[in-house]
Design brief:
The protein is of the alpha/beta class and 206 residues long. The chain is built from five helices and eight strands, in the order E-E-H-E-E-H-E-H-E-H-E-E-H.
Length: 206
């Protein structure tokens, strides 16, 4: 077998008896880490510590894992600018949070004969959020609806980490501002006390 030391150093190809002896002398375990290799690779390690660290890494990975959701935003074909900006703002919030956005245009009556207007509206939305999203599904008509799917440029886990960092920075800023206000209040109170004390002193006799 090919033996690797506890710090990752290459010991070389040794007999299993020699590897077991080295493990006993170092009070470590002999663990096969690459059974398919020729010769197989074994490593000297504290197997209990290895299992504990692997479990901690798996737990952290699960904690940091975030499932991307598909958020729906519905538009009217003849939407005014104010409503459009509101809907676009919702899309930007979802995308910045790491979620996908499904934009849906609902056609009414004769509007179904003007699919090009729906395509232009969805393309306008895609251009307006191009700095934070990509088009994952091009505009397509499905009965009375036309849909397009936008995907965020950054992963949801990254977005959540950024949100946590921003909240922590805001918390520190608020704490610092409170401390500065308290210091200024204390200085003002002290200055006021000195002023009152000076005013209360009797005039000296000549």
């Amino acid at each position: 077998m090919r033996l690797v030391g506890p710090s990752g150093e290459q010991v070389g190809v040794v007999q299993i008896e020699d590897a077991l002896r080295l493990a006993r002398e170092a009070d470590l375990d002999l663990v096969e880490v690459a059974p398919e290799a020729r010769p197989p690779v074994c490593k000297l390690m504290d197997f209990g510590k290895y299992k504990y660290e692997a479990a901690m890494k798996a737990r952290d990975a699960r904690r940091n894992q975030a499932n991307t959701q598909l958020k729906e935003i519905r538009f009217r074909l003849k939407i005014d600018d104010h409503d459009y900006e509101t809907k676009k703002g919702h899309a930007e919030r979802f995308l910045n949070g790491g979620d996908k956005v499904k934009a849906i245009i609902q056609f009414r009556g004769r509007e179904q004969s003007r699919p090009e207007m729906g395509i232009r509206l969805l393309e306008r939305l895609a251009e307006d959020v191009a700095d934070i999203a990509i088009v994952e599904s091009q505009p397509r008509q499905d009965g009375r609806n036309m849909t397009m799917v936008l995907g965020p440029l950054r992963k949801k886990a990254d977005a959540k980490s950024e949100q946590r960092r921003r909240r922590e920075q805001e918390r520190i800023a608020r704490k610092t501002a409170r401390s500065e206000r308290a210091e200024r209040n204390a200085e003002n109170v002290g200055a006021k006390g000195l002023s009152q004390e000076a005013n209360s002193e009797p005039d000296s006799e000549e």
